[in-house]
Amino acid sequence: MKSDYIDRPAVLAEVNAAFYRYEQALISNDIDVLDELFWHDGRTVRYGATENLYGIDQIRDFRQQRPSKGLERLLENTVITTYGDDMAVASTEFRRPGSERIGRQMQTWVKLPCGWRIVAAHVSLMA
């Protein structure tokens, strides 16, 4: 793969903006932005710490039902890599205040006609 294909500065800046917009929406429980940033399709998958969600409808239902308190977290070891102009993977670890557990999150982002959207996500916790 050509090195100029990976992490093109303009594309990387776009994905970073989308990723951190998602993060702000997550910790502030901005359900509208969280919904906006996931691909609105039945093939979207989100594996959570305690749930497996298939399709945008299940993801929306989860967002509506989850607690809106205790969402603060600190990110560590965030790596965002873009491939060409329309695909990226974002990986990060996170810690919540008062918890020793380390969370891990991976997202696959694709640039669609409506903008950058998460098409697959995985969240897990380590002891």
UniProtKB/TrEMBL annotation:
Stored InterPro entries: AtzH-like (IPR024507), NTF2-like_dom_sf (IPR032710)
SUPFAM superfamilies to which the protein is assigned, alphabetical: NTF2-like
Any Pfam family the entry gives: AtzH-like
Protein's name in the database: Oxalurate catabolism protein HpxZ
Organism name: Serratia grimesii
Gene name as annotated: hpxZ
